[in-house]
Amino acid sequence: MATSEHVTPVLGMFPWASIKEQVEADTSRAFVVDIGGGRGQFLKAIQKEAPNGFGAKMILQDRPDVLASLTAEDIPGIEKMSYDFFTPQPVKNAHLYVMRRILHDFYIPVCKEMVKNIASAMGPTSRFIIADMIMPDKVEIGTEVTPYWMDFNLMMLNGTEKSKKQFEEILDAAGLEIVKIYPFAFGCHANIECRLKTGGASS
Ligand SMILES: C[S@@+](CC[C@H](N)C(=O)[O-])C[C@H]1O[C@@H](n2cnc3c(N)ncnc32)[C@H](O)[C@@H]1O
């Protein structure tokens, strides 16, 4: 995981500072909840664009054994919370929920249940950011091979890289919709911004 971390982009997709005003207007809501966030690497990167979490909580959720290995000095400004992502999300109405490199570890029916757990906690202005690769619809000779070999690796774990259409299927089952996709400058990595379905047009 540590090697993979070095070659996987973290920032340069969703503009974390764009939500500053919304967070500062209501710091009683958590700024961001990182679900299955490991050692806090994503949250620590986000802090570079969102110093002090804009005054609201930054919460790292993972298994208790993973969190127990982290001291307060390892993750300054970040609160640890033991949580099993197969259960309903306990932090309600956060500004942002993020999941990085988690959904690709599971097949679609399992992802639907996990995302339903997040949707159950979201309010009208909450956003769910998926940080994963988006599998191209069609194989183009000469383009990046990473999603394909990663897909084979994930098959060993009962996981799979997903296309935009597959993400839409998962989100739809959970009552969510895509607001915008923020692709990395090259390759297939992206941040997918999602919200509760509004029934209206995407902005
Ligand atoms: C592939 S790592 C991704 C870590 C981090 N999101 C990142 O991008 O670096 C998967 C993480 O999910 C956590 N995890 C596995 N099963 C979990 C569960 N049932 N509930 C919460 N976290 C879990 C693991 O402990 C691990 O930290």
CATH homologous superfamily caption: Vaccinia Virus protein VP39
The biggest beta sheet, please? 8 strands, mixed
- Count of folded domains: 1
| Poorly predicted runs of 5 or more residues | none
Cα distance spanning the termini: 35 Å
**Distinct ligands:** S-adenosylmethionine
Order of helices and strands: HHEHEHEEHEHEHEE
Radius of gyration: 16 Å
The third-level CATH topology is Rossmann fold
Roughly what percent helix? 25-40%
Number of strands: 8
| Classification by helices and strands | alpha/beta
Work out the strand percent: 15-25%
Q: Just name the CATH architecture.
A: 3-Layer(aba) Sandwich
Give the overall shape: globular
**Would you state the CATH class?**
Alpha Beta
Mean pLDDT: 94
Determine the number of helices (DSSP H or I, runs of at least 4 residues): 7
GO biological process, one term: methylation
Keywords: Methyltransferase, S-adenosyl-L-methionine, Transferase
Protein name: O-methyltransferase
InterPro entries: COMT-like, COMT_C, SAM-dependent_MTases_sf
